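WARN no homologs supplied; continuing
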Amino acid sequence: MNIAAATSADLPALLEIQHAAFRAEADQYGDCSIPPLRQTVDDLHADLATKTFLKATDETGQLLGSIRAFEKDGVCHLEKLSIDPAHQRRGYGAQLLLAVESKFPHATRFELFTGHRSEGNIRLYQKLGYRTVRAEEISCRLTLVHMEKRRTPPGSTS
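OK structure emitted
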């Protein structure tokens, strides 16, 4: 797998992958109006201009997925990790997540969220060092699980 910055040319295909990946999430909650399913190519262009936007491809150049992130006040916010459903559970999500973390060497904390029924996502994030810090009830069907991973600053003895 190769990981690189996404380009404008990638966005229509990455949006298709995002929609396919999050459709399964929406089905779990009976809510097809979740934000990742409402995004458009124009929204992705806006993200491309303001966030670190990485894509994963296989050895043939086929797009496998993407992730976006931005840093604010030392906190790296991770968004919309999406892997093509035909390629899930092969470690691509973990590799993308670790790759985007490496793009923010000065971040002291990484934050993300997922739905409370997204057990596979939660297990992945826990395996990579994330821990649940709070739950946010969005509706009677959906609670967001907010997770974080703290980075020990270089030279720290803690």
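The domain at 2-107 is CATH 3.40.630.30 (Aminopeptidase).
OK
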